[in-house]
Amino acid sequence: MTDEQVVVANLTKGTKTFPKGRKVFITYMTGWPGSVEVRAQSRGGRWVTAWIGIKLLENARIKNLPKDSVICTKFFIGYHGRDADLACKIVNEGL
């Protein structure tokens, strides 16, 4: 079984939905790098999709998860090669 590459970051500030420091999975980036779509567990424990400003994210990194993990099977999450590297670079360097 192969692993799926996902891009993970942490929140620098808490929001109404997510607490500060929450690990979020970046699922979609538009051509304009002002905000990204993320999936994470809310304060109440449910998995939620939300749009978050890039300035609220830090420590973006690539993580390998098994394809049969709850995160990969429940949601469409995954980047490949340069896309994952670019997503991390945009979040960490604020391009």
Give a structural overview.
The protein is an alpha+beta fold and 95 residues long. It has one domain (3-93). Helix content is 18%, strand content 42%. It contains two helices and five strands. It has helices spanning 70-74, 82-93, and strands spanning 3-11, 23-29, 35-41, 47-53, 57-66. The chain has a five-stranded antiparallel β-sheet, covered by helices on one side. A hairpin with a 5-residue loop joins strand 3 (35-41) and strand 4 (47-53). It starts with a strand and ends with a helix. The mean pLDDT is 77.
Contiguous low-pLDDT stretches (5 residues minimum) are none
**Largest sheet entry:** 5 strands, antiparallel
Radius of gyration: 13 Å
Q: How many alpha or pi helices? A: 2
Q: Please identify the oligomeric state.
A: single chain
Shape: globular
Estimated structural class: alpha+beta
- The ordered H/E elements are EEEEEHH
Identify the strand order in the major beta sheet. Answer: 4-3-2-1-5
Strand content: 35-45%
- Average per-residue pLDDT, rounded, comes to 77
Q: Write down how many β-strands occur, each being a DSSP E stretch of 2 or more residues.
A: 5
The N- to C-terminal Cα distance equals: 35 Å
Number of domains: 1
Helix content: 10-25%
